[in-house]
Amino acid sequence: VSSVLYFNIARSGSGGAIFNNQGTLTLRDCTVQNNMANKAGGGIANGGTPTDYVILGGSVTITNSMFANNMAQSYGGGFHNAYEGTATITNSTFAYNLAGRGGGAIYNGVYSGDDAGSSVQVNNSTITANVAAQPGGGIYNAEGSTVTLSNSVVAFNTSGDCAADDAVMTNWDGSTNLDSDGTCPDSAPMTGLDEQPGRNGGPTFTYALLDGSSATNAGDPTLCPSTDQRGAVRSAPCDIGAFEYGAELPGD
After folding, report:
1. Which residue among 26, 82, 181, 208 is least crowded, i.e. fewest CB within 10 A of its CB?
2. Burial bucket for residue 107 (CB in 10 Å: 0-12, 13-18, 19+)
3. pTM above 0.85, yes or no
């Protein structure tokens, strides 16, 4: 809680800052920045690359956190979820993460298709300005795994905002999302997002919404968290993404 994971390196494996093998990991109000992995999960790997011992993804919960400038030589620049791992990401921002292969911000599953099935749920989060050398600069979902994406912005990422092994994305679910290239299921065009993250209140950097943004009051009210990434109280219907436009900050 309220921690900064900064400039860590996994020189021969996965999980630049944290590698979770069958454990339970909870991050709240954290910044995961400038970490690097020689394999998968530049910021965090929930499960990783199998060797001669058992590696299974555990359970990861990420709330009100920022993943920025993390790099993986292979998959999942910010976060890699694999080997039956489960992850829930809420009110969080992924920006400027880099993958040498797929999933600049988030890679879910195993590229070889031998995963028994991993799942990641992303709600009211902002995923922007991430880069991947292969498809899925924002989010990539591998065969046999499931992504649930709701009330989220996945926009302006290099190599496409969303991608999957399955071209028709039958293992994607969710609603009321915004992207910039039409690659994310159940999405509309994103407009009115600040070009840079900033200190907009709260413990972590966020991307502010601009006047007239397509994200304003556009979220599914049945899925809206009570506060945004900064801890500001959301209105109903909430805004799409991690930032609530015009919301009152704690202590104001």
Report:
1. 26
2. buried
3. yes
